[in-house]
Design a protein that fits this description.
By secondary structure, the chain is of the alpha/beta class. It has 2 domains: 99 residues, Response regulator (Rossmann fold); 84 residues, Orthogonal Bundle (Arc Repressor Mutant, subunit A). Helix content is 34%, strand content 22%. It has a 5-stranded parallel β-sheet with strand order 2-1-3-4-5. A hairpin with a 3-residue loop joins strand 9 and strand 10. Helix 5 packs across helix 7 and helix 6 packs across helix 7. The chain is globular and about 50 Å long. About 6% of the residues have low confidence.
Length: 203
């Protein structure tokens, strides 16, 4: 078994669809309507419209699903590594789950042939994605600047925390989440990849 996945959803059809997807990949899958502290999983898939979020320390990495991301409170959204609006592409889900669990980005077959053009104006804290501009906070700008400087190479959470002047690497995850949400408004491709045990990377 590659990993154990917990699915939290009040939508039986939705939960079964996810369960079958990962069972075909020989993974251990459990489905629950509500969090159960006696169950541990490496990855927790949440239907934020119908399930309460489990505790992050007990359930590892969480991915959030919702028809409308606004229905999830800020605390829950920060715990999730991504928000997928329905209908979503299963390949993106597989890349997010398998990419981190296996420690590889799994981009060889799915990445576009053309590399996304990213330009950062650090002084103004503005990021340009293929010509579309996004306003960033100074700390978000520092994080994306560090990732761009090391593009193609994973940057550790500790190194990123130094860039933003935080003593705790946990704060890095918060800013990565903020950045991903902003980037996804103009680019459907997952620009900031998670590399398990190594940190984050822009390919």
């Amino acid at each position: 078994m590659k990993c154990q996945i917990a699915i939290y959803s009040g939508d039986a059809v939705f939960a079964r669809m996810l369960e079958l997807e990962f069972l075909t990949r020989n993974m251990s899958v459990i489905t629950l309507k509500h969090p159960n502290r006696e169950v541990f999983s490496e990855v927790a898939l949440l239907d934020l419209d119908s399930a309460a979020a489990p505790d992050a320390a007990s359930y590892g990495r969480m991915i959030g699903f919702t028809r409308g991301a606004a229905l999830a409170d800020d605390g829950t959204r920060r715990l999730c590594s991504m928000i997928l609006h329905r209908p979503f592409e299963m390949r993106l889900l597989r890349r997010e789950v398998l990419g981190e669990v296996d420690g590889t980005a799994l981009l060889s077959a799915e990445a576009p042939a053309r590399q996304t053009r990213l330009l950062l104006d650090a002084k103004r804290s503005v990021l340009s994605i293929d010509g579309q501009k996004i306003a960033l906070t100074p700390r978000e700008s520092a994080v994306i600047g560090c990732l761009l400087k090391n593009r193609g190479t994973p940057v550790s959470r500790q190194a990123l925390s130094v860039c933003i002047g935080e003593s705790s690497a946990n704060k890095t995850d918060v800013y990565i989440c903020y950045l991903r949400r902003k980037l996804e408004t103009v680019c459907p491709q997952r620009l900031i990849q998670t590399v398990r045990g190594k940190g984050y990377m822009i390919p």
